[in-house]
Amino acid sequence: MPKKRSGGGLTGTQQAAKFLGVSVLAGAVLAGIALPAAGALGLAAKGTVQGFDEIPANLKRPPLSQRTTILDSKGGQIATVYSRDRTVIKLADISPYMQKAIVAIEDSRFYEHGAIDLKGVLRALNRNAQSGGVSQGASTLTQQYVKNVFVEEAGDNPDKVAQATQQTLGRKIQELKYAIQVEEELGKKKILENYLNITFFGQQAYGVEAAAQRYYSKSAKDLKVEEAAMLAGIVQSPSRYDPVNDTQEATKRRNTVLQRMADIRDISQAEADRAKATPVNLKVSKPKNGCITAVSGSGFFCDYVREVFLSDPVFGKNKEDRAKIWNQGGLTIRTTLDPKAQKSAQASIKEHVYQTDSVATAVTMVQPGTGKIMAMGQSRPYGFGKTETQINYSVDKQRGGSNYGFPTGSTFKPFVAAAALEQGRPPTQVYPAPFKIPYPTVQTCSGNPWVNTDNAEVPNEDESEVGPYALKEAMAKSVNTYFVQMIADIGMCPVMEMTTKMGVVQGNGEKLPEVPAISLGSKGVSPLTMATAYATFANRGTYCTPTAIESIRTADGKSLRVPKSTCDKVMSERTADTVNTLLRGVVDSGTGQQAGLQSRDNAGKTGTTDARRNAWFVGYTPTLSGAVWVGSPTQQVKMENITIGGQWQEKVFGGQVPGPIWRDAMSGALEGQPAPSFISVPIPDPPKEKDKRKPGDGKPGDDGGQTNGGQEPFPGISIPPDLIGGGTNRGQTNGGNGNSSTGGWPDLG
Question: Where is the composition biased (Low complexity) (predicted)?
Answer without folding.
Answer: 739-749
